[in-house]
Design goal:
The protein is built from 10 helices and 13 strands. By secondary structure, the chain is an alpha/beta fold. It has 2 domains: 172 residues, Thiolase/Chalcone synthase (Peroxisomal Thiolase, Chain A, domain 1), CATH 3.40.47.10; 143 residues, Thiolase/Chalcone synthase (Peroxisomal Thiolase, Chain A, domain 1). The strands form 4 sheets. It has a 5-stranded mixed sheet with strand order 1-7-6-4-5, with helices on both faces. The chain has a 4-stranded mixed sheet with strand order 8-13-12-11, with helices on both faces. A two-stranded antiparallel ribbon has the order 2-3. Helix 4 links the parallel strand 4 and strand 5. Helix 7 runs parallel beside helix 8. The chain is globular. The two termini are 21 Å apart. 51% of the residues are buried. The model has no long low-confidence stretch (mean pLDDT 98). It binds acetyl coenzyme *A. Acetyl coenzyme *A binds next to helix 2, helix 6, helix 7 and strand 12. The site of acetyl coenzyme *A has 24 residues, from helix 2, helix 6, helix 7 and strand 12.
């Protein structure tokens, strides 16, 4: 059997310069470093400068990914930007990224699945590449969540940060077996019954405002581990792999407790879990490629490794992607 596989050629990331520590937050609102670290594992987050937009972070991450892949931006014919914090209501942030990279051909569009955005975007790009319509894709997760936080709400503002990460995918011939390099299986889900548990209380079509992030934290926590493990079991069932076979588990970096509980439930060994939430907080669609770029750069993720991504977020939306590096 032959198949087209979306093989990862490179990855990169970008965090804004400004670091906001738990201690600085505690000097402004009624919280503490202890509370934040114990409940979430977060120690600091990065905040975009006033004149730094989501597209600017995305372009820097994309340039790093193109350099890592060793390819020219002109060979990209598909750009998918996962974001819930676009520069403007329209046009898509992806076209600003396309223009910023000097690309005038192909197609660029945004995808909105909140914290699951990166796994949704990877899956979407994979489907374009496997369909044969496009050859090389930039898949980017980029967010400026600092712009939609209510900085007086200690239940949410301590959790999120800004950043961007990107990967370059290329359509390559494979055998169709799980020995191939590239994306091996993808599983996406959503359930709108939970749309009010994590949402932004504004929008062009309702309030005509941007709005602020609102969350029932305990409710999100309650559903997160079950949903995450369900889509990972789907990935295992589709491929025949087990937790033992996985080399690296790179989850959405929302909260260390959710990540630990999910890994424990799935019997994934703690040393296989890539954790960077302490360094940037929850950066929504950007968090997986941010963590990935760290683990690739420090030499943990190597060619041939099985790498498992998962995410869950507002909607609720959730999903998993299993890649052979
Ligand atoms: N500092 C100090 N105290 C706080 C803070 C804070 N920043 N925030 C809330 N508290 C207080 C509350 O007011 C409450 O006080 P009370 O008992 O006097 O009323 C107490 O801490 C407990 O509040 P809870 O909300 O019940 O705290 P919980 O233990 O559930 O932790 C948290 C809150 C961290 C938000 C947790 O519910 C959680 O992690 N939920 C998942 C949310 C998440 O990760 N969302 C990310 C988006 S979704 C995703 O990406 C998966």
């Amino acid at each position: 059997m032959t198949a087209i596989r979306s093989v990862v050629l490179g990855c990169g990331s970008y965090l804004p310069e400004r670091v906001l520590t738990n201690a600085e937050l505690a000097s402004r609102i009624d919280t503490s470093d202890d509370w934040i670290v114990q409940r979430t594992g977060i120690r600091e987050r990065h905040i975009a400068a006033d004149d730094e937009f989501t597209s600017h972070l995305a372009i820097k991450a994309a340039q790093a990914a193109l350099t890592d892949a060793g390819i020219d931006a002109q060979s990209i014919d598909l750009i998918v930007v996962a974001t819930s914090t676009p520069d403007n209501t329209f046009p898509a942030t992806a076209v600003a990224v396309q223009h910023g990279l000097g690309i005038n051909h192909g197609v660029a569009f945004d995808l909105q699945a909140v914290c699951s955005g990166f796994v949704f975007a990877l899956t979407t790009a994979d489907n374009f590449l496997r369909a044969g319509s496009h050859k090389r894709a930039l898949v980017i997760g980029a967010e400026t969540f600092s712009r939609i936080l209510d900085w007086n709400d200690r239940g949410t503002c301590v959790l999120f940060g800004d950043g961007a990460g990107a990967v370059v995918l290329e359509a390559q011939p494979g055998t169709g077996t799980t020995a191939d390099r590239g994306l091996l299986t993808t599983h996406l889900r959503s359930d709108g019954r939970h749309k009010s548990k994590l949402f932004v209380d504004g929008g062009p079509g309702s309030t005509k405002t941007v709005g602020h992030l609102r969350m029932e934290g305990r409710e999100v926590f309650k559903h997160a581990v079950g949903m995450i493990t369900d889509v990972i079991v789907d990935a295992f069932n589709a491929t025949g792999f087990t937790a033992e076979d996985i080399n690296w588990f790179i989850p959405h970096q929302a909260n260390k407790r959710i990540i630990d509980a999910s890994a424990h439930k799935l019997h994934i060994a703690p040393q296989k879990v890539v954790l960077t939430v302490d360094l940037h907080g929850n950066t929504s669609a950007a968090s997986i490629p941010l963590a990935l770029a760290v683990a690739v750069k420090d030499g943990r993720v190597k060619k041939g490794d099985l790498v498992l991504f998962e995410a869950m977020g507002g909607g609720f939306t959730w999903g998993s992607v299993l890649v052979r590096w």
